[in-house]
Design goal:
alpha+beta; binds zinc ion
Length: 308
């Protein structure tokens, strides 16, 4: 089974689970306290928005199962190249609040400038959300630079604001795959990028020995049959899994000297429900540092757009 379904949990339980994880991380890593406080502020906004998105209606996409199965068979994510109408009016208030939370949480004027640019019409939020959903890093970054805004911060804030929407789309596309053909195509998915949106995983969460890749954008979960580099497929000596901290074998990093990529893996009692995956990500920032110090990196997003 390639695609792993994660049952949604109530907002209340989501917050309880998040607080418990933050408490444990803060106890082990007091230096992360400011980062955790900011993450709490951001995730609270994202969880609120998810409630609004889930209560609304998703756009009806004309994506027949046969068509999606054929896309997946070619290694192309379901949403790639599809014109998806983004509910800008629903997402916009959260985008602005996220800017405020970032400004208060350490990003300062760089975050305020983004809010101002949206407020005064210099940044058109619908275009930003659409470029973000299309995973068009060039458009988002170039647009930000031209307006004197911090490209990474614009990407982050837009990604957080679009997250609940793309997560809901992913769940409706993957989780409710009722056609045998589509389910078979999902089961046959062998790529390291997300079958729904095409992003790379943020981490692999390992539950009961199952190494499950977790999409950094839509939070989908999928398992690959081969233990190999998720970026290039290397499974020989050049693909190594190591625990930088010997006392914490539950937190590892997979590195590949064929392609130079790395992936963090973390043992957990259960897969993180949306949007708590970012807690696994923040919990393992020392693994990013260890991998990068050794010259490994994460590749750029794959371009799945149809040739123009
Ligand atoms: Zn995804
Ligand atoms: Zn590789």
């Amino acid at each position: 089974m390639a695609y792993v379904r994660i049952e949604p949990i109530s907002r209340e339980n989501l917050l309880i689970s998040a607080e418990e994880r933050w408490r444990l991380i803060a106890a082990a890593r007091p230096d992360l306290a400011p980062a955790l406080a900011l993450q709490r502020a951001l995730l609270t906004l994202v969880i609120e928005l998810a409630g609004v998105v889930d209560a609304g209606r998703l756009p009806r996409l004309s994506l027949p199962p046969k068509y999606l199965a054929a896309k997946l068979a070619r290694g192309v994510p379901m949403l790639a190249g599809e014109p998806v109408p983004v509910p800008t009016r629903v997402l916009l208030p959260t985008l602005l609040k996220l800017c405020d939370a970032l400004a208060a949480g350490g990003a300062g004027a760089a975050a305020t400038h983004i809010r101002d640019a949206v407020d005064n019409g210099s940044v058109e939020p619908g275009s930003l959300f659409t470029a973000l959903l299309n995973r068009n890093q060039t458009a988002v970054r170039t647009g930000a630079s031209h307006r004197g805004l911090a490209p990474d911060l614009v990407w982050l804030v837009a990604e957080l604001a679009v997250g609940p929407f793309v997560h809901a789309l992913q769940r409706s596309l993957l989780g409710q795959a009722t056609s045998d053909e589509l389910r078979a195509a999902l089961d046959a998915w062998r790529a390291g990028h997300c079958p729904a949106c095409g992003s790379w995983p943020a981490v692999a969460e390992v539950v009961g020995g199952h190494r499950t890749l977790r999409c950094s954008f839509c939070s989908s979960a999928w398992e690959l049959p081969a233990y190999a580099c998720i970026y290039c497929g290397e499974r020989g000596e050049k693909f190594v899994t190591a625990a930088p901290n010997e006392e914490r074998p539950d937190r590892r990093v997979e590195v590949c000297s064929s392609c130079g990529g790395y992936l963090k893996t973390i043992d957990l009692p259960q897969l993180s429900p949306f949007p708590l995956l970012s807690i696994s990500d923040i919990e393992t920032t020392d693994l990013d540092v260890a991998a990068m110090e050794h010259g490994y990196g994460r590749p750029a997003l794959k371009d799945h757009s149809p040739r123009r």
